[in-house]
Amino acid sequence: MKPPLKIALAGLGTVGAGTLRLLRSNADLLAGRGGKRIVVGAVSARDRRKDRGVDLSAARWFADAAAMAVDPEIDVVVELIGGANGVALDVVKAALAHGKHVVTANKALMAHHGTELARLAEAKGVALAFEAAVAGGIPIMKTLREGLAANRIARVYGILNGTSNFILTTMRESRREFSEVLGEAQEVGYAEADPSFDIDGVDAAHKLAILTSVAFGTEVDFAGVYVEGIRHISALDIEYAAELGFRIKLLGLARPTEHGIEQRVHPCMVQRTTPIANVEGVFNAIMVEGDFCGRIMLQGRGAGAEPTASAVVADLLDIAAERRSPSFAVAARTLSALPASPMERHRGAYYIRLMVVDRPGVIADVAAALRDEQVSMEAMIQRGRSPTEAVPVVLTTHETEEAAMRRALARIADLSTVLEPPRMIRIESL
Amino acid sequence: MKPPLKIALAGLGTVGAGTLRLLRSNADLLAGRGGKRIVVGAVSARDRRKDRGVDLSAARWFADAAAMAVDPEIDVVVELIGGANGVALDVVKAALAHGKHVVTANKALMAHHGTELARLAEAKGVALAFEAAVAGGIPIMKTLREGLAANRIARVYGILNGTSNFILTTMRESRREFSEVLGEAQEVGYAEADPSFDIDGVDAAHKLAILTSVAFGTEVDFAGVYVEGIRHISALDIEYAAELGFRIKLLGLARPTEHGIEQRVHPCMVQRTTPIANVEGVFNAIMVEGDFCGRIMLQGRGAGAEPTASAVVADLLDIAAERRSPSFAVAARTLSALPASPMERHRGAYYIRLMVVDRPGVIADVAAALRDEQVSMEAMIQRGRSPTEAVPVVLTTHETEEAAMRRALARIADLSTVLEPPRMIRIESL
Question: What ipTM describes this predicted complex?
Answer without folding.
Answer: 0.96
